[in-house]
From TrEMBL, chain A:
Protein's UniProt name: Response regulator transcription factor
Domain annotation Response regulatory: ranges: 3-113
Pfam families assigned to the protein according to its UniProt record, in alphabetical order: Response_reg (PF00072), Trans_reg_C (PF00486)
Organism: Pallidibacillus pasinlerensis
Residue numbers carrying 4-aspartylphosphate: D50
Residues in the DNA-binding region annotation: 120-221
Keywords: DNA-binding, Phosphoprotein, Transcription, Transcription regulation, Two-component regulatory system
From TrEMBL, chain B:
Subcellular location: Cell membrane
Highest taxon, organism lineage: Bacteria
Catalytic activity: ATP + protein L-histidine = ADP + protein N-phospho-L-histidine
Protein's recorded name: histidine kinase
Coiled-coil intervals, chain numbering: none
Length: 221, 447
């Protein structure tokens, strides 16, 4: 079970988030200030942190947590100024402003857990079963393992880490190759074509790696 | 300020020196020449004295011949002769002129008058102690003698005066050049700007008028900094005030949302469900409104930080629509993206502002043009401009939805676009709205 540490001083909002996350199967511990959280940290998978807190503010607490342990931190604040977001994102992994929709909070928690590999060890994607830890890809229909080359593997992993997000060509290229994308470069397209040939049932009508016309690609759960 | 340190004092010194300069030169030269030459007896005086002494010492005529020989050794160019008590030219040596053999009183007087302080230099001395044996005349052209003091002095003056004047002009030139140089340096120093756009203090080297000008300037710089600091503090205060205000409004909004969420899970009548839905929409609207109001206030007071850089704008738009895609998709929109790279792909803009503009425009499409179920993104390039086009098929802005509040969002877009030296055009009909964000290729157009 995923352990979430939640720090929020407002009782009404705190209760709402606490109850909702519990309902969604998270093991949540709620603190009303940063006091006493140290003992919790070692068994925490993700931190949700308010900014305006009694005593130490959320930014300071967040920085301390990050220093102690590299766990995902999601700032949840009614402070929406760009300065605040910039400061928050200097250490936190995400910044969600109040008032928020519970669905959005849940979605962002999912993304963070996935990014930190704290989540599902096994991912079901259409006809594929993917064991995240060792990136073992099994075709459910043939029960055979699908072997990817280095670059295909990197691209696919990048998609999985950004599940449900639309990735532009530039983002993908720069994320995988680590160098600036040059307009008109076909390398990425070629790699994706080969990748599709390996993982798609029908590479001509891809279901796993969707093409978003004019924008990029997406892998959806 | 000490008077003697001042430029005025220096200037007065130069003027006074100028007024008396020639006199001072004369005086100084004369003193100098006198000190070098003047202490020694002049040759003429020496000749005169010795001639008189030796003439007086003569006791018999044979001594006169000896005297002549003895003097000829010393002065080969000199002429000497003896006029005896009877006025007869008795003995002579090395005569240059024809003198009459007999000298009467009138000729003697004429000779003396002629030779007095003239050339040749002439000394007349009586012979013997009693002066009864006529007189001895010694004459020598002056140019054979050592020059006398006055001549030497005037020679020195002809050199020292022009030299002195040139020196004086040079010193004055140096004086004014130095002042000029300091003023130019001062001007340059005043034009230097620090990172924050303020001038920086100047080191004061001299305590004169320019020095006090520099002091005054430094004082002004300090005041400027102080007022800038005050301004920044006020700005910070304002920002915090607005941030806190928006925070304080958002917190209860979040609570309302929390409660509506909890309520939603109860079994409710259709009407109650509907009112919860409306409540949520109102929360959204209010959230946007607070955000926009905050931005608008900051923008309007020029307190919104603007950091421009070269940005690949098409890429920015693509990334932006990528993050909005799921929402459009969820609302059943047709998403038509046809973005071509511009020739000049980088625009000098603030990427955060530009994203904000896109967000505002996309939000408007979802809020006010959801009926059209269409969003199109295109690029357009002409000789005059490059443009990003965002089109929808809603009912247009005039007729548009019952929801108001798009105004402030668009006002923000307008302000941001104008600040970034871009332009935009809205074409809104009942069949849809097309918004073009334009960047003119020639600078004049943009102005």
């Amino acid at each position: 079970m995923v352990n979430i540490l939640y720090i929020e001083d407002d009782k009404e909002i705190g209760e709402w988030v606490y109850e909702s996350l519990k309902e969604h199967g998270f093991n949540i511990t709620w603190f009303q200030s940063g006091e006493g959280i140290e003992k919790q940290l070692s068994k925490t998978d993700l931190v949700i942190l308010d900014v305006m807190l009694p005593g130490l503010d959320g930014f300071s607490i967040g920085k301390r947590i990050k220093k102690a342990r590299d766990i995902p931190i999601l700032m949840l604040s009614a402070r929406t100024a760009i300065d605040d977001k910039v400061e928050g994102l200097s250490f936190a992994d995400d910044y969600l402003t109040k008032p928020f929709h519970m669905e959005e909070l849940l979605a962002r928690i999912e993304v963070l857990l996935r990014r930190y590999n704290k989540h599902e060890k096994v991912l079901q994607l259409k006809h594929l079963t993917i064991h995240m830890k060792d990136m073992l890809i099994i075709n459910n229909e043939t029960s055979e393992e699908i072997q990817l080359t280095g670059k295909q593997y990197q691209i696919f992993q990048y998609f999985l880490r950004h599940l449900n997000q639309i990735l532009t060509k530039e983002q993908l290229y720069e994320g995988v190759w680590g160098e600036p994308y040059i307009e008109g470069d076909k390398t990425l397209m070629v790699h994706i074509r080969y990748l599709r040939e390996k993982i798609e049932k029908d590479p001509a009508n891809p279901e796993i790696i969707e093409t978003i016309r004019g924008i990029g690609y997406r892998v959806r759960k | 300020m000490k008077f003697f340190k001042s430029l005025q004092a220096k200037y007065m010194l130069i003027v006074i020196t100028a007024l008396f300069f020639v006199y001072i030169l004369f005086l100084a030269t004369s003193i100098a020449v006198f000190n070098i030459n003047g202490h020694e007896e002049l040759e003429t005086a020496k000749i005169e004295r010795e001639w008189h002494r030796e003439a007086n010492a003569i006791e018999n005529p044979s001594m006169i011949t000896e005297l002549f020989e003895h003097w000829t050794n010393r002065y080969p160019d000199a002429s000497m002769f003896w006029i005896n008590e009877k006025g007869r030219l008795t003995a002579h040596h090395n005569l240059k002129e024809d003198y009459p053999p007999i000298w009467d009183a009138s000729y003697t007087a004429k000779f003396i008058k002629e030779r007095y302080d003239n050339d040749p230099f002439t000394v007349i001395a009586f012979v013997g102690e009693e002066q009864k044996h006529g007189f001895l005349v010694y004459e020598i052209p002056r140019d054979k003698l050592e020059q006398d003091y006055v001549e030497t002095n005037s020679q020195f003056l002809s050199i020292s005066v022009p030299l002195g004047i040139i020196l004086f002009i040079f010193v004055s030139y140096l004086f004014f050049r130095k002042i000029r140089k300091r003023l130019v340096n001062l001007q340059d120093a005043m034009e230097i700007r620090d990172n924050d756009g303020l001038p920086i203090a100047i080191p004061v080297k001299k305590e004169d008028e320019i020095g006090s000008l520099e002091h005054a300037f430094n004082h002004m710089v300090a005041e400027l900094r102080k007022s800038r600091k005050r301004e920044q503090e006020e700005e910070q205060l304002r920002k915090e005030l607005i941030a806190n205000l928006s925070h304080d409004i958002r917190t209860p909004l979040t609570k309302i949302r929390a409660h509506s969420y909890t309520l939603q899970k109860e079994t409710l009548s259709e009407q109650a469900q509907e009112s919860i839905k409306n409540m949520n929409e109102s929360i959204n609207k209010m959230d946007t409104l607070i955000e926009n109001l905050m931005s608008y206030t900051l923008l309007h007071a020029n307190k919104f930080e603007f950091k421009s850089e070269d940005v690949d704008v098409v890429r920015l738009l693509r990334t932006s629509i990528a993050s909005w895609y799921p929402l459009f998709e969820k609302n059943g929109f047709e998403i038509d993206v046809q973005l071509e790279q511009f020739k000049e792909k980088e625009w000098n803009i603030d990427p955060i502002w530009m994203e904000r503009i896109f967000d505002n425009l996309f939000q408007n499409v979802i809020r006010h043009a959801a009926d059209g179920k269409y969003i199109g993104l295109r690029t357009e390039s002409t000789d005059e401009y490059d443009a990003l086009i965002i089109a929808d098929r809603g009912k247009g802005m005039n007729a548009s939805s019952t929801e108001k509040g798009a105004g402030i969002g668009l006002a923000i877009v307008d302000m941001m676009i104008k600040t970034m030296n871009l332009d935009w055009k809205i074409d809104s009909t009942n069949n849809g709205t097309t918004i073009k964000i334009l960047r003119y290729k020639s600078f004049e157009k943009a102005v």
